[in-house]
Amino acid sequence: MIIVKAKYLIPNPESCIENGAVVINGTKVHRLGVFDEIKSLAKNEKIVDLGNAVILPGLINTHTHLDLSNLHNRIKSTNNFTHWAFQIAGTRMRWKEEDHVSSVEKGNKLCIESGSTTIADISNTGHSFSVLKKSPLRKVVYREVLNFNPDQAKDVINKIQSELSAFVADNLLSIGLSPHAPYSVSKELYQAIAHMMKNTGIPVCTHVAETQDEIEFLKKGTGNFHILLKQLRVLTEKWQPPGLSPIQYLKETGILGNHTILIHCNYVTDEEISTIKSSGASVAFCPRSHHYFGHTNHPIQRLLDAGINLGLGTDSLASNVSLSVLDEMKFLFLNYSISPKTLLAIATINGAKALGLESKVGQIKEGFEADLCAIRLPDCHNDNVYNRLFDVASKNIFTMVAGAICYNVSL
Hints:
8-stranded mixed sheet; 4-stranded parallel sheet
Protein backbone atom coordinates (compact mmCIF):
# COMPACT_ATOMS: atom_id res chain seq x y z
CA MET A 1 0.00 0.00 0.00
CA ILE A 2 0.93 3.63 -0.53
CA ILE A 3 -0.21 6.57 1.59
CA VAL A 4 -0.33 9.98 -0.06
CA LYS A 5 -0.74 12.96 2.27
CA ALA A 6 -0.85 16.74 1.97
CA LYS A 7 -2.04 19.84 3.79
CA TYR A 8 -5.46 19.49 2.17
CA LEU A 9 -7.48 16.72 0.59
CA ILE A 10 -10.54 17.50 -1.55
CA PRO A 11 -11.95 14.06 -2.44
CA ASN A 12 -15.04 15.59 -4.07
CA PRO A 13 -16.35 19.14 -4.55
CA GLU A 14 -18.34 19.05 -1.30
CA SER A 15 -15.53 17.98 1.04
CA CYS A 16 -12.24 19.45 2.18
CA ILE A 17 -10.07 17.66 4.76
CA GLU A 18 -7.14 19.39 6.43
CA ASN A 19 -4.04 17.25 6.89
CA GLY A 20 -5.66 14.71 4.59
CA ALA A 21 -4.36 11.40 3.33
CA VAL A 22 -5.32 8.70 0.85
CA VAL A 23 -4.42 5.03 1.28
CA ILE A 24 -3.94 3.23 -2.04
CA ASN A 25 -4.00 -0.54 -2.33
CA GLY A 26 -3.02 -1.72 -5.80
CA THR A 27 -5.02 0.31 -8.31
CA LYS A 28 -7.79 1.31 -5.89
CA VAL A 29 -8.47 3.83 -3.16
CA HIS A 30 -8.54 1.83 0.08
CA ARG A 31 -9.21 4.55 2.63
CA LEU A 32 -9.12 8.33 3.03
CA GLY A 33 -9.41 10.86 5.82
CA VAL A 34 -7.31 12.84 8.28
CA PHE A 35 -3.74 11.52 8.35
CA ASP A 36 -3.61 11.40 12.15
CA GLU A 37 -6.55 8.98 12.11
CA ILE A 38 -5.15 6.59 9.51
CA LYS A 39 -1.41 6.79 10.18
CA SER A 40 -1.65 3.51 12.09
CA LEU A 41 -1.68 1.92 8.64
CA ALA A 42 1.66 3.52 7.89
CA LYS A 43 3.87 1.17 9.94
CA ASN A 44 5.43 -0.49 6.91
CA GLU A 45 3.83 1.48 4.12
CA LYS A 46 5.39 3.98 1.77
CA ILE A 47 4.32 7.54 2.61
CA VAL A 48 4.38 10.26 -0.04
CA ASP A 49 4.23 13.60 1.79
CA LEU A 50 3.34 16.37 -0.65
CA GLY A 51 3.46 19.15 1.94
CA ASN A 52 1.74 22.46 1.17
CA ALA A 53 -0.52 21.05 -1.50
CA VAL A 54 -4.09 19.97 -2.08
CA ILE A 55 -4.82 16.44 -3.27
CA LEU A 56 -7.61 16.34 -5.86
CA PRO A 57 -9.29 13.67 -7.95
CA GLY A 58 -7.34 13.39 -11.19
CA LEU A 59 -8.41 16.12 -13.62
CA ILE A 60 -10.39 15.00 -16.68
CA ASN A 61 -9.81 16.59 -20.07
CA THR A 62 -13.00 15.94 -22.05
CA HIS A 63 -11.68 17.31 -25.33
CA THR A 64 -8.23 17.58 -26.83
CA HIS A 65 -6.31 16.97 -30.06
CA LEU A 66 -2.89 15.70 -29.00
CA ASP A 67 -1.85 15.18 -32.61
CA LEU A 68 -1.78 18.99 -33.01
CA SER A 69 0.66 19.56 -30.14
CA ASN A 70 3.61 20.29 -32.43
CA LEU A 71 1.68 23.24 -33.87
CA HIS A 72 2.26 25.25 -30.69
CA ASN A 73 3.29 28.80 -31.70
CA ARG A 74 3.32 27.77 -35.37
CA ILE A 75 -0.18 28.92 -36.29
CA LYS A 76 -0.78 32.62 -36.85
CA SER A 77 -3.40 33.89 -34.41
CA THR A 78 -6.70 34.69 -36.13
CA ASN A 79 -10.38 35.03 -35.29
CA ASN A 80 -11.24 33.60 -38.72
CA PHE A 81 -11.87 29.91 -38.08
CA THR A 82 -11.62 28.79 -41.71
CA HIS A 83 -8.31 30.65 -42.13
CA TRP A 84 -7.04 28.91 -38.98
CA ALA A 85 -8.15 25.53 -40.36
CA PHE A 86 -6.36 26.26 -43.67
CA GLN A 87 -3.12 26.96 -41.79
CA ILE A 88 -3.35 23.67 -39.91
CA ALA A 89 -4.11 21.64 -43.02
CA GLY A 90 -1.28 23.27 -44.96
CA THR A 91 1.27 22.70 -42.21
CA ARG A 92 0.35 19.08 -41.52
CA MET A 93 0.45 18.14 -45.20
CA ARG A 94 4.24 18.48 -44.95
CA TRP A 95 4.56 16.30 -41.83
CA LYS A 96 6.15 12.87 -41.84
CA GLU A 97 5.02 10.01 -39.65
CA GLU A 98 7.55 10.87 -36.94
CA ASP A 99 6.07 14.39 -36.73
CA HIS A 100 2.61 12.99 -35.99
CA VAL A 101 3.99 10.55 -33.42
CA SER A 102 6.12 13.14 -31.62
CA SER A 103 3.15 15.50 -31.51
CA VAL A 104 1.03 12.95 -29.64
CA GLU A 105 3.95 12.08 -27.35
CA LYS A 106 4.45 15.76 -26.51
CA GLY A 107 0.76 16.22 -25.71
CA ASN A 108 0.67 13.08 -23.59
CA LYS A 109 3.62 14.30 -21.49
CA LEU A 110 2.06 17.73 -20.98
CA CYS A 111 -1.25 16.25 -19.85
CA ILE A 112 0.44 14.05 -17.25
CA GLU A 113 2.58 16.91 -15.94
CA SER A 114 -0.46 19.19 -15.55
CA GLY A 115 -2.49 16.74 -13.47
CA SER A 116 -4.82 15.17 -16.01
CA THR A 117 -5.41 11.49 -15.34
CA THR A 118 -8.10 10.91 -17.99
CA ILE A 119 -8.22 12.44 -21.46
CA ALA A 120 -10.61 12.32 -24.40
CA ASP A 121 -8.38 12.63 -27.44
CA ILE A 122 -9.49 12.97 -31.06
CA SER A 123 -7.12 11.30 -33.50
CA ASN A 124 -7.10 12.53 -37.07
CA THR A 125 -4.37 10.20 -38.31
CA GLY A 126 -4.78 7.20 -36.01
CA HIS A 127 -1.35 7.60 -34.42
CA SER A 128 -2.87 8.38 -31.02
CA PHE A 129 -4.05 4.78 -30.68
CA SER A 130 -0.56 3.29 -30.87
CA VAL A 131 1.18 6.06 -28.92
CA LEU A 132 -1.37 6.34 -26.12
CA LYS A 133 -1.68 2.57 -25.79
CA LYS A 134 1.68 2.80 -24.00
CA SER A 135 0.73 5.85 -21.92
CA PRO A 136 -0.10 5.51 -18.20
CA LEU A 137 -3.04 7.88 -18.72
CA ARG A 138 -6.63 6.72 -18.73
CA LYS A 139 -8.00 7.68 -22.13
CA VAL A 140 -10.80 7.53 -24.62
CA VAL A 141 -9.35 7.87 -28.12
CA TYR A 142 -11.85 8.87 -30.78
CA ARG A 143 -11.03 8.18 -34.43
CA GLU A 144 -11.92 11.33 -36.33
CA VAL A 145 -14.17 10.90 -39.38
CA LEU A 146 -14.50 13.48 -42.16
CA ASN A 147 -16.41 12.97 -45.40
CA PHE A 148 -19.08 15.19 -46.90
CA ASN A 149 -20.01 12.98 -49.85
CA PRO A 150 -23.32 11.21 -49.04
CA ASP A 151 -22.60 8.49 -51.61
CA GLN A 152 -19.46 7.41 -49.74
CA ALA A 153 -20.98 7.01 -46.25
CA LYS A 154 -21.21 3.22 -46.37
CA ASP A 155 -17.64 2.80 -47.64
CA VAL A 156 -16.31 5.18 -44.97
CA ILE A 157 -18.02 3.22 -42.20
CA ASN A 158 -16.68 -0.10 -43.50
CA LYS A 159 -13.16 1.32 -43.65
CA ILE A 160 -13.36 2.78 -40.14
CA GLN A 161 -14.73 -0.44 -38.67
CA SER A 162 -11.87 -2.38 -40.25
CA GLU A 163 -9.32 0.10 -38.90
CA LEU A 164 -10.72 0.12 -35.37
CA SER A 165 -10.73 -3.67 -35.21
CA ALA A 166 -6.93 -3.53 -35.12
CA PHE A 167 -6.97 -1.65 -31.80
CA VAL A 168 -7.64 -3.45 -28.54
CA ALA A 169 -9.27 -1.66 -25.62
CA ASP A 170 -8.05 -2.32 -22.07
CA ASN A 171 -8.54 -1.02 -18.54
CA LEU A 172 -6.99 2.33 -19.48
CA LEU A 173 -7.99 2.64 -23.15
CA SER A 174 -11.46 3.00 -24.64
CA ILE A 175 -12.09 3.45 -28.35
CA GLY A 176 -14.60 5.85 -29.88
CA LEU A 177 -15.64 7.68 -33.05
CA SER A 178 -15.71 11.40 -33.75
CA PRO A 179 -17.67 12.56 -36.80
CA HIS A 180 -15.94 15.91 -37.07
CA ALA A 181 -18.68 18.52 -37.53
CA PRO A 182 -21.91 19.25 -39.46
CA TYR A 183 -19.93 21.12 -42.14
CA SER A 184 -17.49 18.24 -42.75
CA VAL A 185 -19.63 15.12 -42.31
CA SER A 186 -22.61 14.26 -44.51
CA LYS A 187 -26.01 13.61 -42.99
CA GLU A 188 -25.81 10.05 -44.31
CA LEU A 189 -22.48 9.45 -42.56
CA TYR A 190 -23.81 10.88 -39.29
CA GLN A 191 -26.78 8.52 -39.60
CA ALA A 192 -24.51 5.54 -40.26
CA ILE A 193 -22.39 6.37 -37.19
CA ALA A 194 -25.55 6.81 -35.11
CA HIS A 195 -26.66 3.35 -36.21
CA MET A 196 -23.26 1.92 -35.30
CA MET A 197 -23.38 3.68 -31.92
CA LYS A 198 -26.82 2.19 -31.19
CA ASN A 199 -25.72 -1.34 -32.12
CA THR A 200 -22.29 -1.40 -30.49
CA GLY A 201 -22.40 1.24 -27.73
CA ILE A 202 -19.23 2.86 -29.09
CA PRO A 203 -18.72 6.33 -27.56
CA VAL A 204 -19.16 9.25 -29.93
CA CYS A 205 -18.25 12.94 -29.84
CA THR A 206 -18.67 15.70 -32.41
CA HIS A 207 -17.88 19.41 -32.76
CA VAL A 208 -21.05 21.46 -33.04
CA ALA A 209 -22.32 25.06 -32.88
CA GLU A 210 -18.72 26.24 -32.71
CA THR A 211 -19.03 29.32 -34.94
CA GLN A 212 -21.64 31.67 -36.37
CA ASP A 213 -20.37 30.60 -39.81
CA GLU A 214 -21.51 27.04 -39.08
CA ILE A 215 -25.02 28.26 -38.25
CA GLU A 216 -25.19 30.32 -41.45
CA PHE A 217 -24.00 27.39 -43.56
CA LEU A 218 -26.59 24.95 -42.20
CA LYS A 219 -29.47 27.40 -42.33
CA LYS A 220 -28.71 29.20 -45.60
CA GLY A 221 -25.84 27.36 -47.32
CA THR A 222 -23.81 30.57 -47.53
CA GLY A 223 -20.77 32.11 -45.87
CA ASN A 224 -17.20 31.05 -45.16
CA PHE A 225 -17.90 27.33 -44.96
CA HIS A 226 -19.63 27.38 -48.34
CA ILE A 227 -16.53 29.05 -49.79
CA LEU A 228 -14.18 26.63 -48.01
CA LEU A 229 -16.01 23.49 -49.16
CA LYS A 230 -16.20 24.82 -52.71
CA GLN A 231 -12.44 25.40 -52.69
CA LEU A 232 -11.91 21.87 -51.39
CA ARG A 233 -14.27 20.55 -54.09
CA VAL A 234 -16.36 18.57 -51.64
CA LEU A 235 -19.60 20.53 -52.04
CA THR A 236 -21.70 19.14 -54.89
CA GLU A 237 -24.17 21.20 -56.87
CA LYS A 238 -27.08 19.09 -55.63
CA TRP A 239 -26.35 19.80 -51.97
CA GLN A 240 -29.00 21.88 -50.26
CA PRO A 241 -28.77 23.41 -46.76
CA PRO A 242 -30.99 21.60 -44.26
CA GLY A 243 -32.33 24.92 -42.99
CA LEU A 244 -31.78 23.84 -39.38
CA SER A 245 -29.70 24.97 -36.45
CA PRO A 246 -26.67 22.74 -35.67
CA ILE A 247 -28.31 20.97 -32.71
CA GLN A 248 -31.59 20.46 -34.60
CA TYR A 249 -29.58 19.02 -37.47
CA LEU A 250 -27.77 16.54 -35.22
CA LYS A 251 -31.08 15.49 -33.70
CA GLU A 252 -32.37 14.61 -37.16
CA THR A 253 -29.32 12.45 -37.84
CA GLY A 254 -29.89 10.43 -34.66
CA ILE A 255 -26.41 11.16 -33.32
CA LEU A 256 -27.66 12.70 -30.07
CA GLY A 257 -27.89 10.25 -27.20
CA ASN A 258 -26.48 9.09 -23.91
CA HIS A 259 -22.74 9.67 -23.63
CA THR A 260 -22.56 11.59 -26.89
CA ILE A 261 -20.25 14.52 -26.20
CA LEU A 262 -21.07 17.78 -27.96
CA ILE A 263 -17.87 19.80 -28.27
CA HIS A 264 -17.99 23.59 -27.83
CA CYS A 265 -21.71 24.51 -28.18
CA ASN A 266 -20.61 28.16 -28.29
CA TYR A 267 -23.81 29.38 -29.94
CA VAL A 268 -26.98 27.60 -28.80
CA THR A 269 -30.50 28.83 -28.17
CA ASP A 270 -32.68 27.99 -25.18
CA GLU A 271 -34.62 25.60 -27.43
CA GLU A 272 -31.40 23.81 -28.40
CA ILE A 273 -30.35 23.60 -24.76
CA SER A 274 -33.66 21.88 -24.05
CA THR A 275 -32.95 19.45 -26.90
CA ILE A 276 -29.48 18.68 -25.51
CA LYS A 277 -30.93 18.10 -22.05
CA SER A 278 -33.61 15.73 -23.40
CA SER A 279 -31.03 13.76 -25.36
CA GLY A 280 -28.82 13.01 -22.36
CA ALA A 281 -25.75 14.30 -24.20
CA SER A 282 -22.87 16.04 -22.43
CA VAL A 283 -21.08 19.22 -23.47
CA ALA A 284 -17.31 19.77 -23.55
CA PHE A 285 -16.42 23.43 -23.06
CA CYS A 286 -12.91 24.67 -23.91
CA PRO A 287 -12.72 28.13 -22.27
CA ARG A 288 -9.33 29.39 -23.45
CA SER A 289 -9.80 28.09 -27.01
CA HIS A 290 -13.18 29.86 -26.98
CA HIS A 291 -11.34 33.04 -25.96
CA TYR A 292 -8.63 32.51 -28.59
CA PHE A 293 -11.17 32.71 -31.41
CA GLY A 294 -12.86 35.77 -29.94
CA HIS A 295 -16.25 34.14 -29.43
CA THR A 296 -18.90 35.94 -27.45
CA ASN A 297 -19.83 34.81 -23.94
CA HIS A 298 -20.26 31.06 -23.76
CA PRO A 299 -23.69 29.85 -22.53
CA ILE A 300 -22.02 27.81 -19.77
CA GLN A 301 -24.30 29.11 -17.04
CA ARG A 302 -27.45 28.42 -19.05
CA LEU A 303 -26.22 24.89 -19.75
CA LEU A 304 -25.48 24.29 -16.07
CA ASP A 305 -28.79 25.81 -14.99
CA ALA A 306 -30.56 23.42 -17.38
CA GLY A 307 -28.90 20.47 -15.67
CA ILE A 308 -26.76 19.50 -18.65
CA ASN A 309 -23.60 17.59 -17.81
CA LEU A 310 -20.69 19.84 -18.78
CA GLY A 311 -17.00 18.97 -18.70
CA LEU A 312 -13.81 20.90 -19.44
CA GLY A 313 -11.49 20.50 -22.41
CA THR A 314 -8.28 22.18 -23.48
CA ASP A 315 -8.71 21.73 -27.25
CA SER A 316 -5.24 21.73 -28.84
CA LEU A 317 -2.00 23.69 -28.72
CA ALA A 318 -2.98 25.14 -32.08
CA SER A 319 -5.54 27.31 -30.24
CA ASN A 320 -4.29 27.25 -26.65
CA VAL A 321 -1.12 27.89 -24.67
CA SER A 322 -1.23 24.74 -22.53
CA LEU A 323 -3.03 21.43 -22.13
CA SER A 324 -3.73 22.06 -18.45
CA VAL A 325 -7.28 21.59 -17.15
CA LEU A 326 -6.15 23.46 -14.03
CA ASP A 327 -5.38 26.46 -16.26
CA GLU A 328 -8.87 26.20 -17.74
CA MET A 329 -10.35 26.30 -14.22
CA LYS A 330 -8.21 29.32 -13.34
CA PHE A 331 -9.44 31.10 -16.46
CA LEU A 332 -13.07 30.42 -15.55
CA PHE A 333 -12.47 31.47 -11.93
CA LEU A 334 -11.18 34.84 -13.12
CA ASN A 335 -13.61 35.49 -15.95
CA TYR A 336 -16.90 33.78 -15.08
CA SER A 337 -19.09 33.86 -11.98
CA ILE A 338 -18.83 30.16 -11.24
CA SER A 339 -18.30 28.81 -7.74
CA PRO A 340 -15.11 26.87 -6.91
CA LYS A 341 -17.12 23.76 -6.06
CA THR A 342 -18.84 23.88 -9.44
CA LEU A 343 -15.48 24.32 -11.17
CA LEU A 344 -14.12 21.26 -9.40
CA ALA A 345 -17.19 19.23 -10.36
CA ILE A 346 -16.87 20.26 -13.99
CA ALA A 347 -13.21 19.20 -14.07
CA THR A 348 -13.72 15.86 -12.30
CA ILE A 349 -17.14 14.29 -11.68
CA ASN A 350 -18.77 15.80 -14.78
CA GLY A 351 -15.89 14.77 -17.00
CA ALA A 352 -16.10 11.21 -15.70
CA LYS A 353 -19.84 11.12 -16.42
CA ALA A 354 -19.32 12.50 -19.94
CA LEU A 355 -16.94 9.63 -20.68
CA GLY A 356 -19.07 6.96 -19.02
CA LEU A 357 -16.52 6.47 -16.25
CA GLU A 358 -18.43 7.93 -13.30
CA SER A 359 -18.52 4.60 -11.43
CA LYS A 360 -14.75 4.44 -11.08
CA VAL A 361 -13.11 7.87 -11.46
CA GLY A 362 -13.92 11.55 -10.87
CA GLN A 363 -13.82 11.29 -7.06
CA ILE A 364 -11.39 10.03 -4.45
CA LYS A 365 -13.63 7.38 -2.94
CA GLU A 366 -13.11 3.99 -1.39
CA GLY A 367 -13.24 1.34 -4.11
CA PHE A 368 -12.69 3.86 -6.91
CA GLU A 369 -9.61 3.82 -9.13
CA ALA A 370 -6.68 5.63 -7.51
CA ASP A 371 -6.54 8.47 -10.03
CA LEU A 372 -5.41 11.67 -8.32
CA CYS A 373 -3.25 14.73 -8.59
CA ALA A 374 -1.83 17.26 -6.15
CA ILE A 375 -1.58 21.00 -6.64
CA ARG A 376 1.15 22.89 -4.81
CA LEU A 377 -0.35 25.98 -3.21
CA PRO A 378 1.39 29.36 -3.26
CA ASP A 379 2.66 30.75 0.04
CA CYS A 380 0.39 33.67 0.86
CA HIS A 381 -1.65 35.12 3.71
CA ASN A 382 -4.95 34.05 2.16
CA ASP A 383 -6.23 31.03 4.08
CA ASN A 384 -8.97 30.23 1.57
CA VAL A 385 -7.85 26.98 -0.04
CA TYR A 386 -9.90 27.59 -3.18
CA ASN A 387 -8.43 31.04 -3.78
CA ARG A 388 -4.97 29.55 -3.41
CA LEU A 389 -5.86 26.58 -5.63
CA PHE A 390 -6.91 28.89 -8.45
CA ASP A 391 -4.08 31.37 -7.89
CA VAL A 392 -1.87 31.95 -10.92
CA ALA A 393 1.11 30.51 -8.99
CA SER A 394 -0.44 27.13 -8.08
CA LYS A 395 1.04 24.18 -9.94
CA ASN A 396 0.52 20.44 -10.28
CA ILE A 397 3.30 18.45 -8.62
CA PHE A 398 1.93 14.91 -8.53
CA THR A 399 -0.07 12.68 -10.85
CA MET A 400 -1.22 9.13 -10.13
CA VAL A 401 -3.28 6.86 -12.41
CA ALA A 402 -4.63 3.50 -11.24
CA GLY A 403 -2.30 3.58 -8.23
CA ALA A 404 0.84 4.19 -10.33
CA ILE A 405 2.80 7.39 -9.77
CA CYS A 406 3.27 8.99 -13.20
CA TYR A 407 4.67 12.35 -12.11
CA ASN A 408 6.15 13.57 -8.84
CA VAL A 409 8.29 16.69 -8.64
CA SER A 410 8.57 16.38 -4.85
CA LEU A 411 11.01 13.46 -5.22
